[in-house]
Fold each of these.
Amino acid sequence: MPEHGGVPIELRGVTKRFPGAGAPAVDRLDLLIPAGEIVVLLGPSGCGKTTTMRMVNRLEEPTSGDILIDGQNSRDINPNQLRRHIGYVIQQAGLFPHMTVARNVAQVPKLLGWDSRRIAGRVDELLDLVGMDPGLFRDRYPRALSGGQQQRVGVARALAADPPVLLMDEPFGALDPITRERLQDELLRLQEELAKTIVFVTHDVDEALKIGDRIAMMQRGSRIVQYAAPAEILTDPADDYVEQYLGGESSMKLLRLTKVGDIRLDRVPHAAEDADTERLLAEIEAGGDQYALIVDEARHPLRWVTVDDLAGRTGPVGDLGDPVGDTILGRMTLQDALESLLNADTDVVPVVGRRRVYSGVISLSTVQQAIQDIKARERERRRRRHDGPRG
Amino acid sequence: MSLWEYVSSRKDLILFEAAQHASMVAQCVLVAAVLGVLVGVLSYRRAHVSALALGMAGVLFTIPSLAMLGLLIPPLGLGVAPSVTAITLYALLPIIRNTVVGLRGVDAQLVDAARGIGMSGRRSLLRVELPLAWPVILTGIRVATQLAMGIGAVAAYVSGPGLGEQIFSGLARLGGANALNSTLTGTIGIILLALLFDACFVLLGRLTIPGGIRA
């Protein structure tokens, strides 16, 4: 079954007042959630982020304002019908304990009147998708599953009828840190395939920065203080509130958001083992370097050679120099790279990309430069956007 | 005459009375279960309504059974009618209470999940809330059954059917021939019936409580 991508959601002047409460929980909120993106509603508890999310599938009815899903006003759709086409994932999964895993996942297709053969096929497909062996887990009851497994089933249940929109209310909040990280990674992997429109509610800054394509920073009354990509929020917080909520260390957080492969790496001369010593020496000195990297025919890094190793020799380089101790992978985060750099025997470490092919070198100053570049770029982008339309 | 001789000489009558007793209790509890669960389902979401329902059932509960049966004679006369009415009324309280408690005990997150994936309120009640509350409701019905067994015996006071007749006629001529045998037969018979019904409830629980929430 082909999976369908997401649709845009637009909130227009949405207000929610609860009877008996003074200030509205959500106050004239405008928000455009683009199709196929993960938008994180981030804010302290009681700021109205969950209420905002619950209005999208009409678990709460807006007091005023409109919510358009793929251009259609949600008021015009029967709430039960609407919810069958919006996946819903809550904390601790909310699996029905008296139903097996398969029956839990089958609920929405059943509501939609699919025949049992199609449902059974879909259930297995979904369990596979969330990394659970259908043969092993299909007939188990939720209480026989770990918290992480339960939440996987929760995600499978939400995806069962291939809805274009997914609402996730602190879905990983009750999990231990390791399981949470893993499920976040899997959600991102799934999202690469599915491209759903996901509204993700959390109060966890790190989770928001990791998961979100965009983050809506919220204050009491669901007032959006800043609505931007994670890097922009980190590099250019809109005000003190955002900065305070991020909790400082914004450079450290940028390190976690950025992959080694995405920054500009340093270059050093590199050569194969059969390269001529004198020519390599000339190349090193021409570039003002002190050393070069020797790679094999598949361009895997082998050894460092210094000017002193090469001086006064002739013929091919052969096995001169010292073996490369550490390498850093292109898909590591800058934070992991920094950790490796601090522990490495040399100041400069080769970076390898796919199939461990040499793609550059990195040092502490490379990382520092990269962070400065990112900050400058984000500042520039923000300035352009603010000035552009008016200028 | 020993107890055993007493029982074997009146085997047919005793079996008939036991069957009557069992049938009366079963039917009363069945009616009370349908009514009680209905009242529970209709009232559990509204605190004051369920308080009212429970309060009324509670007041009925405090009336001594003998007095209740006596009070029912003027409107209903003697025999089956007042017996059945009294037993059903007594059986209501534990069933309503356990239905309300059971339904309220269902994790609010699960009801939210049920509504959130698009179940109607009715479907959520039938597919999620009632199945999850069922063990508690079943316990209420079981308690109601034990209660009905005992009150069924007192029903003989208004010439109701069942094993109570053995007890009352024995007590009425205490010291006379077979008085003790008669009373003992009625009492033991009711105990045995109660145990039998209880065993049925254990079986019913096994058959009807979904696997995932069975203790």
Note: The CA atoms of residues 49 and 129 of chain B lie 19 Å apart.
Amino acid sequence: MMLQSVFTGTAVLILVPILTLILGVIIGYFAQQSGFCSIGGMRDLFLFKQTRLFFGYLALIASAFVSYFIFSLIIGTAFPNFYWAAEKGFFTPIPGAPGGLENWAYIILAIIGGFGMGLLGVMLGGCPLRQIVMGFEGNVKSLFFILGMMVGAVLFHLFIASWVVSLF
Amino acid sequence: MEDESKSKNLIKMVRSPIFLGVIIGFLAALLQSLLYSAGGPEAYGFCVACHTRDMVDDLINSIFGTSLVVAPFSAAAFAPALSIIGVMIGALIAAKNNKEFRIKKANFKGALLYFLGGIFVLIFALLLGGCPYRAALRFAYGDMLAFIGILAIALGVFVGTRIVLFQMKKQIEEEAK
């Protein structure tokens, strides 16, 4: 309850860039040190039966679930729809993908998006986070990957999102 | 002696993926509890694809006056989510501190391939509604669609490893000839 009254109004609007920046620095530092990679974890599991990175990804899911559960008890207003599927229905996505489609369309998009990301991630040697880390370890190819992601973000909302919505 | 084993344990922890996984999950939930009143969305504490999108599209919107889609809390705040800049800074500090910074040059073909790869990976990620990390957060938040996404990523990775294995076999056979 205390926290809620502190972080409201303009204070939060200033904190968005600051807190996300700090979060990024922490994740970037430890990601460089551990070689953290979600797609790399699955790849090592399938290719070499190695679980080191894969357990990192599982730990992320488990830790997020426990943390959401605990924080939602303390500050319920910040977690209005935890546990999402029980609140909103089994296949309603949390906003993020193109809006206003039927549930079955989101299932197809999730399968296409996930499959494409996994396939390209393996071919190029890492998930988006790992590419950023490799880029700033001095890998020039990965720097071009980051540049590509930035261009892709613009292209997606200029052309692709509306094109995808028109398909369904 | 005790100090030495302590510092060894610390290094082990810092280099452990499980440790970072736990940190990301915890901080993502903490961030949501602090920042949700800025407009959400939920399970959005950390996402490489979406936060890149927020940063770039918000910048382009403010320069060219366009109205590209940006997450509500990035649009409302004075500046969008900057976690991607943070990751760059953090990774650079870590690499420099531990003398692991090495320039690996790229030829034109490699650079172009990775540039196009970046474009497509971001498009695929936004179709799913997040990179693998946000998919993990969404799944933990109870979004079953994200679980389908994670399974699809695993399938994509599996097919990818088969292709990589096939290419390696071909290469070895060619070299043997």
Note: DSSP finds eight helices and no strands in chain A.
